[in-house]
Amino acid sequence: MNESNFLTLEEVARNLKVTRQTVSKYIQSQKLNAIKINKSYRITINDFEDFINSNSTIEEPQISYVNKTKNCNLEYLGKSNEFEVINSIKHGDFRMIDFKYPSSKNMFIFGDNYFVLKKLLGSHKSSIDLIYIDPPFGTGQAFNSIDDNEVYSDRLVNSEYLEFLRKRLLLLRELLSEQGSIYLHIDKKIGHYVKIIMDEVFGYKNFINDITRIKCNPKNFARSAYGNYSDMILYYAKYRDKQIWNDVKEPLNEFKKKKLFPKYHPDFGSYTTNPIHAPGKTINGDTGSEWKGLMPPKGRHWRYRREVLDELDDKGLIEWSKTGNPRKIVLAKDHKGFKVQDVWEFKDKGLSYVNYPTQKNRDLLDRIILNSSNESSIVLDCFAGSGSTLLAANKYGRNWIGIDNSTHSINVVQNTFKEKRIGCSFYEYVPYD
Ligand SMILES: C[S@@+](CC[C@H](N)C(=O)[O-])C[C@H]1O[C@@H](n2cnc3c(N)ncnc32)[C@H](O)[C@@H]1O
After folding, report:
1. How far does residue 334's CA lie from ligand 1's centre (Å)?
2. pLDDT value at position 70?
3. Whose alpha carbon is nearest atom 6 of ligand 1?
4. Following DSSP, what letter does each residue of 296-326 receive, concatenated?
């Protein structure tokens, strides 16, 4: 006898949320053959089929149900209470540890970011405009420097990792200003769980983009899988549509310039031409009339009034073909740039070219800082590593706060900043006894 084909009365009652008596009555009414094994009555699944179907609570999603799922939560053991995370008090203080180039606004704090963020809530609640974080990814590994010393550990995995991150995200949300936003850099193994945690913390309605970041050249590994050359950046606002958004465009690069503006003019540089007419006939107006001996082609009208066409021609911005066909000259130097899309290529350099493992490409941080902060903004990175975010924030005149608990991190940041003479007050977090 295969026991897995049998169900006990208790199992059926528990799973269908009916009483044991209801199940017994059904067995008696149907005269089913219940067999006693190990003190409990069992019956075959086949005999129970009708009963299970008529008592099943499974439903197809309704429209209202689909709406509810947007704010679904991730359940796991050891999930702490949100109120307690935000409001419990840890007693400690920041102690200045380096006086070389102090700054009244920019600081780096050495310590566990959970306690440091809690402390910052006292002074910076609702005042941070931009957060970029690149936390450990829950890989279970340690990361070493080029000389093989451990720089930081990424040993928390699964739900413990998610809870580590969630607690910090709750505090970060409290630090964000009304116009603030957060970018979280993560890999694609754990990133989808982190997305749910972020929906829970920041609200699904405040999710803006899941940016795919191409991180390296295509890989040719032997594993039976597609090469993995991207990670993800989850971007949320504190309040959607209130966030700072500078709409910085992607400039025209040489490759695209050659493709889109293939012609060259000795005075104007690279250019292309566009027709000066468009579909649709003008019955009586100026754009349907003769210009320089030409009528618009059949069923079309001039794109511009004739006075404007004259002006363009006077400036040499109309190109006449050998057969007398006019086209408007469009200059590469007037191109306004492209709307940035959600796939970004910012490859990281290998460890031998940088001074910190997992150091992120600074151009990527430039884009985030320029798009999502203003000069008056404070930018925060509480997994600061080599200080890439802080350097980018500093480059564009923002104020910033960096936090990290690795001694390698504070050493690298101190050295880099001193070399570049960047003002920064260095503190360590000291808990009270
Ligand atoms: C992926 S690295 C960040 C690299 C950084 N984005 C860069 O470009 O250099 C993650 C950093 O988080 C720091 N970290 C991990 N747990 C931390 C904690 N509880 N408090 C503060 N920093 C932590 C590590 O020391 C490490 O420097």
Report:
1. 42
2. 61
3. 134
4. PPTTEEESS-HHHHHHHHHTT-EEEPTTS-E
